[in-house]
Amino acid sequence: MTQTPEPYSQEWLRLPVSYVRQVAEALGERVARWWDDPFDPRDATIELADGTALVWDEESGWRHGRFVSGEQGVRTELADVRYLGGGVLPAPTRVVTLLDDPAYGGTSRPEYRRYTHLGDGFDQALAGFVPVTAGPDGHRLRRLTV
Asked: DUF6292 domain: from which residue to which, for each copy (predicted)?
């Protein structure tokens, strides 16, 4: 079982980074840039090359819309928002599928959990998205945690 960091420690604040990085990698060349924002709730933005963005937060999962403004340390603002659905932590390839299916999701904000619900197993699930690194032969390897 993976040990989860103490809430609000630097390690805890950075737990979503590996997950969001894997989603950005699954989106490939569609990504212009991405960043994380630390807390209450923890969230992250993936700005896409087409002028839209995906925003993830630990309460409602992924949403997509036209990028209006945002940068690291400032909440991202989107217009014409569509929540993708699929839960708070859909697999990275599932996020791509949901994004590409305009019939899926909707404009109502789901609430899968509250960021104040520490100890509900969410941090352990985030910790399961371990960093992906390239091996010596250039192939992608998933670093295992013990």
From this structure: 19-100
**Does residue 31 register a pLDDT over 50?**
yes
Q: State the Cα–Cα distance between residues 21 and 95, nearest whole angstrom.
A: 12
Q: Report the candidate in 84, 32, 29, 28 with the shortest Cα–Cα distance to residue 56.
A: 84
The pair of three-digit structure tokens given for residue 5, joined into one six-digit string = 């960091």
Q: CA 47, CA 38: separation in Å to the nearest integer?
A: 17
The C-alpha atoms of residue 33 and residue 54 are separated, in whole angstroms, by 11
Distance CA 3, CA 128 (A): 10
Phi-psi region of 138 (alpha: psi -120 to 50; beta: other; left: phi over 0): left
Parallel, antiparallel or unpaired: strands 74-83 and 132-134? unpaired
State pLDDT tens for residues 125-139: 999 887 655 444 444
The residue extents of the domains of the chain are: 10-142
